[in-house]
Amino acid sequence: MTQHNDMIRLRHMLDHAEEAVALVAGKDKTGLKHDRVLELALIRLVEIIGEAFAKVSSDTQAKYPSIPWQQVIGMRNRLIHGYDSVDLDILWDTIEIDLLPLIAELRKIVSETGEE
To answer: Which residues are identified as catalytic?
Structure first.
């Protein structure tokens, strides 16, 4: 995979992470349990983020050690393979807590590489 393709994937990750955070803005965790459409949208966005992460070359992953590559990929795998037992509290916390620093890191990388 070329560096250019990796940067496109990083951009996809950033876009989908920002979208997930925007979807929960102004909402609370309890509302997620009563909004099936929001639940499905958030699950799908996190799956896409993880899938894009998994397709980034090992060279690019090594270049950006501040990104929690394996944790994001692991979350995607958990959502896909454990589709029948998704813990909505963990999903919510992932979006509310973990995506914000990830977005900051991805913005820096995308800005550095001129892929904005």
So the answer is: 76, 81
Q: Which range of residues forms the domain containing residue 46?
A: 3-113
For residue 96, give every residue at least 6 positions away whose Cβ sits within 8 Å of its Cβ, in sequence order, or none: 21, 24, 29
* pTM exceeds 0.85: yes
How many residues are there in the chain?
116
Work out how many domains the chain is built from and give that number. Answer: 1
Nearest residue to 47 (alpha-carbon basis) of 85, 15, 8, 74: 74
pLDDT number for residue 32: 86
Residue 1: predicted pLDDT: 44
**Contact 95/39 with Cβ under 8 angstroms?**
no
Specify whether the CB–CB gap between 13 and 53 falls below 8 A: yes
The average confidence (pLDDT) of the chain is 91
